[in-house]
């Protein structure tokens, strides 16, 4: 069972045991479904409610109905099992993209060194193709071939 990092519990909200999670995970709608199980400190907890409030993911967990019952979870990392996500074939996690090869339209090959966020909505690929380049992930010049496990970058970006 592979664990995937979703985010970190930052604080509580209200008195009914609701937790705030700061997350930049790409597939939140699949991860934070009611009934899914989150892993915190290697223990599974079922999601009872979910909503978004001021950019944070807000959840309550099954069997916890009071703020005092969830205080022990503060500042903990939150994970989900990869199997529970049920990702479609074309939905690829950042961790999996690191194993992909970078190929340019002119035939040059390289590797991905890192995938990071320059801002909350701007994902960047740091790749090495003869030299290091930074490529915006959402660019129309970047295509992902899941079958070949390749990221194809338009030769325009090869400067």
Topology of this structure?
Blueprint: E1 3-13, E2 18-22, H1 28-31, E3 37-40, E4 43-53, E5 56-61, H2 67-70, E6 77-81, H3 82-85, H4 94-97, E7 101-104, E8 109-119, E9 122-129, E10 131-136, E11 142-145, E12 150-153
Parallel strand pairs: 7-12
Antiparallel strand pairs: 1-2, 1-6, 2-5, 3-4, 3-6, 4-5, 7-8, 8-9, 9-10, 11-12
Determine the number of helices (DSSP H or I, runs of at least 4 residues): 4
Number of strands: 12
Low-confidence stretches: none
Helix content: 10-25%
The major beta sheet can be summarized as: 6 strands, antiparallel, barrel
Describe this structure in words.
With 159 residues, the protein is mainly beta. Helix content is 10%, strand content 50%. The chain folds into 2 domains: 3-85, RimM (Elongation Factor Tu (Ef-tu), domain 3); 94-157, SH3 type barrels (Roll), CATH 2.30.30.240. The protein has helices at residues 28-31, 67-70, 82-85, 94-97; strands at 3-13, 18-22, 37-40, 43-53, 56-61, 77-81, 101-104, 109-119, 122-129, 131-136, 142-145, 150-153. The strands form 2 sheets. A 6-stranded antiparallel β-barrel has the order 1-2-5-4-3-6. A hairpin with a 2-residue loop joins β4 (43-53) and β5 (56-61). The chain is elongated.
